[in-house]
Every structure is written in structure tokens, then in C-alpha cells.
């Protein structure tokens, strides 16, 4: 099978970085107006992790596989059958494939996923296999 228009590790990393910076800035600004202090220490807390994970699950369902960073970088999460992602796909991808496996393996699965994205022809990591997804360039 020929895999065309698959997003590699570099563009995925840039999209994730953009998401983090944009959302952290928004969250820090809201935190400032609520508490009166401007700090990024909230990024270590449970509330931030919950918010960020829900963002990564819900927005792609609403926005046809995009989050803000992916939209900026012109990449999109799709199901392996080229359909739009569902709640089940994104839950399995983010919660099971990233959070749960990443925690249980002390981050080793994240490093393996990065290697898979770099070296596999289909550019799919562990979280893509768990979620039944891939990331494509538009």
C-alpha cells in the first residue's frame, strides 16, 4: 500500500507545541484574572491536564480532525478508513494511547511512538494504532 500525504514527526511536534503555547497563554490569562497572579505553574496541575486532554478529544470531533495547532500546520487526524474521527477514536488515541500507556511505561511508549512515526512508512505511532487513526497533510 502506498501511503501519501502522511504527516511526519516534525510537523506533528510543531502543531503540538503551538497548541500548548496558545492554550497555556489563554489559561494563564484566565488564571491571572481569577487569582491576580500570572504564572505558568498551573501547567503541572490536574486541572490543566484535564482541560488539555478534553481539548484534544473534543475539538477534533467537532472540527473534523483538527485542533488549533493542526489547523495552523495543515495536518488532520483521520480514521484509517478516511472517515472523520469519533469520540471512541479520540478517547482511545488520547486517553489510552497517550495518557494511560505513557504513564504505565514511564514515557517509554511515547519515545517508541516517535520512532515509529519517523521510521514507519505509514507514519503511525502507538496512539494511532490504539485509536485507529493516522495524521495526514492537507
TrEMBL record:
It comes from the Bacteria. Its main location: membrane. It is found in: Cell membrane. InterPro entries: Pra-immunoreactive, RDD. Residues 7-131 form the RDD domain. The chain crosses the membrane at residues 12-34, 46-69, 99-119. It is a multi-pass membrane protein. Keywords: Cell membrane, Membrane, Transmembrane, Transmembrane helix. This is RDD family protein.
Amino acid at each position: 500500500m502506498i501511503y501519501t500525504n502522511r504527516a511526519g514527526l516534525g510537523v506533528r511536534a510543531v502543531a503540538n507545541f503551538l497548541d500548548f503555547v496558545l492554550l497555556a497563554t489563554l489559561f494563564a490569562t484566565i488564571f491571572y484574572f481569577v487569582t491576580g497572579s500570572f504564572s505558568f505553574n498551573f501547567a503541572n496541575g490536574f486541572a490543566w491536564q484535564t482541560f488539555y486532554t478534553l481539548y484534544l478529544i473534543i475539538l477534533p470531533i467537532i472540527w473534523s480532525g483538527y485542533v488549533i495547532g493542526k489547523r495552523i500546520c495543515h495536518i488532520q487526524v483521520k480514521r484509517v478508513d478516511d472517515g472523520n474521527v469519533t469520540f471512541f477514536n479520540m478517547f482511545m488515541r488520547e486517553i489510552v494511547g497517550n495518557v494511560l500507556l505513557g504513564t504505565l511505561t514511564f514515557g517509554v511508549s511515547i519515545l517508541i511512538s516517535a520512532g515509529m512515526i519517523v521510521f514507519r512508512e505509514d507514519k503511525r505511532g502507538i496512539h494511532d494504532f490504539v485509536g485507529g487513526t493516522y495524521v495526514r497533510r492537507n
